[in-house]
Structure formats: C-alpha cells, structure tokens
Specification:
The chain is of the alpha/beta class. It has one domain: 3-Layer(aba) Sandwich (Rossmann fold). Helices cover 46% and strands 15% of the residues. The chain is built from 7 helices and 7 strands. It has a 7-stranded parallel beta sheet, sandwiched between helices. The chain starts with 6 loop residues before the first strand and ends in a 7-residue tail after the last strand.
Length: 244
Amino acid sequence: MDLRGRTALITGSAVRVGRQICLELAERGANIVINYRTSAQAASELVAEIKRLGPDALAIQGDVSRSADVARIAEESTRRFGQIDVLVNNASIYPRTPFAQLTEAQWDESIAVNLKGPFLCCQTFGSRMAEGDGGVIVNISDWAVFRPYADYLPYLTAKGGIITLTKALARELAPKVRVNVIVPGPIQPPGDLTDAERQEAAAGTLVGHWGNPGDIAKAVAFLVEGSDFITGAVLSVDGGRLIA
C-alpha cells in the first residue's frame, strides 16, 4: 500500500511511541487520526506538527476500551476523511501488578485497554475495510509474552492475546485486509526504572542497547508499505532480546 493520500488511525498516539508512528506515516504522505485519552495538549501540538509536514490531521479523544467511544471515533474520522486505510492499535497501559496484591479491578482494566480495545477497533474499522477497498491493521504486543517476567500478569496476558487476535483476524478479514503484529523489546524505558535496570535491559539484547520509538514506527511503515504479501505475521523489533 502506498501511503500517499491514505488515512491512518493510531490509537494512544499523542505521546511516546504512538507519536512517532504518526510522524513516520505522515512523512510518507498519510493523513493521520490521532486518538488520545488524556493527552489533549500533546495531541493538539501533534496535529499542528503533522500539518506542517503537508498531510491533514485530526485528534479525537476517546477510550478505546469503550465501544461507544470507538463508535464515535469511527464516526468523526470517517466524516473527515472517509475510509480509514490503516489502523495501528498502539494504546496501552503498563501498571505494575504484583500477583499477591492483584485485584479483579486491575485485571479488568488491563484486559480492557490492552486486549478488548484493540478488538473493538479491529471489529469496527476492520469490518469497514473488508467491506470497502481493503486496508492494513498493525497491532502492538510485547516481547515478554514469550519470556514473562514477574509483577505484570494481566498486562502480559492481554499482550499475549494480541498475538492470537492478530492471527485469527488475518484469517477472518482476508483477503482484503492484512493484519500483523509487532513485538517490541526494550524501546523506551519507563520513568520508574533505575539506571541499573536500564543497563540490565540493554545488556540483555544482542545489540547491546535500547531501541527507540523510531524503530517501531519504521516497522509499522514496513508492514504497511513494504509488501502486500505479509499477513498474520509476528515481527520482533527487540534487538535480539528473545534469542539473547
């Protein structure tokens, strides 16, 4: 798919990795729908930055774990741009949830945002793509679903479900919609990591350093533009962390 003149919707995209995905796709000529939940100022600034690059952009507030919000996002984005050609399910939460203190509410919230939200967006936009001119969906998982670490059980369970969701949807939405998943490794350290923990994560890769949001953004662009013969694929962008 050539992104020039197309429209891409990226969830959770006002800051961090999502922001970089928006800029990467905009630089390739795509109009951008920025979805955010609370980062209104950052979303507004990103709209302006994308418009300076040339494409159009629209920011829409919404919680993707709520079907009513997803329906509204679809209505507003379609009214502005028509069909959404690319969906990137980037919205995510990453709370530390030690097993001994894990509550039902914490479990429900993580599953809702990290798994239900991508499903709702895929169901809404993927169905429209399949009925229309086709499209591309890129989901975001996590390398740790293959080598789980402690204290993040609901997050990792949801992100593992994203891989199964991707493969199943690749079948459900074929042949007009391609669905793939990116599995990031150490990309952008959380603010609560100590220097020792950051160094340990870097040392755990084969390349010996952290990645950055641009690595994920370029991988998204590749899955959209690089080949129309890739679907149901799991692309690791982890510096070799899985095999180190």
